[in-house]
Amino acid sequence: MKRLEKYEQVTGKTIGDSMRRSARLLAVNLAFSTPPYGNNDSSRKLGERAVQNDILRVYTPAAPIKTKFETKILSLRETARRFLTRDFDLRDAIIAAIDAGNRIHNRHADNPQKKTTKKSKALGQSDLVTILKNAPGFNRLNVSTGVDVSLHHKTRNAYGRVRKGWKGREIVYNSKELETYIKEKQELVGMTKAGWAKAAVLVNAPVSNALRGISAWVRRHTDHVQAAVKDESEKKERPLYTLTSKVPWADKATREAAYKEAKRIAREKFYKSLNKEIREALKKARAESMTSGATA
Predict the structure, then answer these.
(1) pLDDT at position 174 over 50
(2) Which phi and psi angles does 68 have, rounded to 5°?
(3) DSSP tally for the chain: helices H, then strands E
(4) What would the mean pLDDT of 141-169 be, rounded to a whole number?
(5) Is 195 a residue whose pLDDT tops 90?
(6) pTM of this prediction?
(7) Residues in contact with 180: Cβ distance below 8 Å, sequence separation at least 6, in sequence order
């Protein structure tokens, strides 16, 4: 407390303003420490890749899809083509059923695809279900028309990631829908960080840009999340500033060790800034005193 009192006496500034600047820095540090860890494009790509990998552990596309990152996960069509080398009839039946309702990328030597219609999709999916049900090694697979979002939610752990050891048996027949679902989820990367970005704004620190140090891919979500701040900086005994991210899963997204480290860094920066301002104010006061004395 002595240092805080000295700060006010020497600089003429309030502890509140200094604490608000420090609280903003804490919010920025918490955003940095929230997965995907970091603040640059590499961090964004890390998050987008994790989203893609998690979703493809739950769902398998019937036909090949375009993904942002290279993946080892094969579509059912690619699996049949590549590994059914002894039962050509089964392979061709699976491929034909899939092709009836999907636009296929990289068809190689296959025959030109006929126009896809609602009828061909329905027939193709029902055919595929029948074929797989009677094929050893494939009969435990479930074929759904589109993405059953509830399954994705069901497989995630407390930290929002698909549980380790999960073995997906869900085939998405309308593979384009799965491709779109992955892209939509990748667009949400940075939203958990944005809860702290929102807090940085609400702090109302005396700075020119409250979101300085936070990347655009995080800032884009700031208007879509909620946060809260509690200002108790005027307390004489123990001034406090409390930040809360109201993103529903925020408390589980970041590990306790990361929270502690973010607070440690913010506290360190706060006192470093405090000491610097005290030194500069004392230096200025001495210079003015010497100038005043010389004039006299």
Answers:
(1) yes
(2) -70, -30
(3) 12, 5
(4) 88
(5) yes
(6) 0.83
(7) none
